[in-house]
Amino acid sequence: MSTETLAEHRVPAGLQWRALSGRTIRAAVREGDLPFGFVAPMIFFVCFFVPLRHSMELGGGRYAQYLLPVIVVQGMFFTAMSAGDRAARDTFSGMGTRLRSMPVRAWLPLAARMSANLVRAVAAVAGALAIGGAFGFRFHDVAGAFAFVGLALAFGVALVIGADALGVATGKPEVGASALLAPQLLLIMMSTGFVPAQAFPGWIQPFVRNQPVSRTAAALRELADGKFTAALGISLAWIAGMIVAFTAVSVLVERRRS
How many CB atoms lie within 10 A of CB 42? Predict the structure, then answer.
């Protein structure tokens, strides 16, 4: 069949995108990944809130207001781990190869995976806000709330792009998610998400203050309080840098596979 004939019978991009993203979302629901994405932030919030609340509130303030941003960020890491696993499984099963042999636009598989992962990221943010609200977390105003969610999802998109590229490159489900476990633990635990930088040894405080998780958690706290400060710009700079770098890696991986 000629290229012209294939073009005439090609399914519209919108329908292809809906079919591919719907396939991934349905699989996430069926396998329990999407419900887990909603519940996991609740579990981790309670695990950290209960033992740390009293010591953190001795100087005043509400620990739920301080803690929730890093729980949201952690939810984005778990979304990225899920994205890496899903991309690796698609590569391992030959799904990507089959799609390249069909009249499907080259960018659609990645776009479909990204939109499905965005649904999981929204579920993680929703779960975090639900448990945070139950323990006293509040937004100061509507603008801050929308900016809070937008920044959290932007951070998640940056992570998902990198995780997806890793999953496609390795093609091994056991590597796609587990390779992100150590960086996630390092950045989350060595951040200002649970305790202030002053709680860490002096030699590591510069790293703790300035790494992307700390910067994003700080920006989310400011947004929750209705403040649009320099912390937001620094976090956006980190996110933009990660998106550019990970997108370049993703393009390189796709070119090598085509």
Answer: 17
Task: Pick the more confident residue, 13 or 151.
Answer: 151
Per-residue DSSP letter, 11: P
Instruction: Write the pLDDT tens digit of every residue in 72-117.
Output: 999 999 999 988 888 887 776 666 566 655 656 666 777 788 888 9
- Give the closest residue to 79 by CA, choosing from 134, 48, 40: 40
Is the separation of the CB atoms in 57 and 133 below 8 Å? no
- The predicted-structure confidence for 222-246, as pLDDT tens digits, reads as follows 999 999 999 999 999 999 999 999 9
Q: What is the pLDDT of residue 130?
A: 96
**Domain-by-domain residue ranges, the chain?**
3-257
CB-CB contact of 77 with 228 (8 Å): no
Radius of gyration of the chain (CA): 20
Distance from C-alpha of 241 to C-alpha of 229, rounded to nearest angstrom? 19
Cα 77 from Cα 79, distance rounded (Å): 5
Contacts of 222 (CB under 8 A, 6+ apart): 228, 229, 231, 232
Q: What is the mean pLDDT of the chain?
A: 85
Tokens of 158: 């940056």
Sorted by sequence, the CB contacts under 8 Å of residue 49 that are 6+ apart come out as: 63, 64, 67, 135
Cα–Cα separations (whole angstroms), residue 210 to 13, 75, 147, 238, 246: 41, 20, 21, 10, 20
Closest CA to 120 of 40, 219, 65: 40
Q: Find the mean pLDDT for residues 204-232.
A: 95
Q: Which 3 state secondary structure label does DSSP give 139?
A: coil
**Are 103 and 5 spatial neighbours (Cβ–Cβ below 8 Å)?**
no
C-alpha distances in Å from residue 26, one per residue of 32, 62, 122, 220, 238: 10, 38, 16, 31, 32
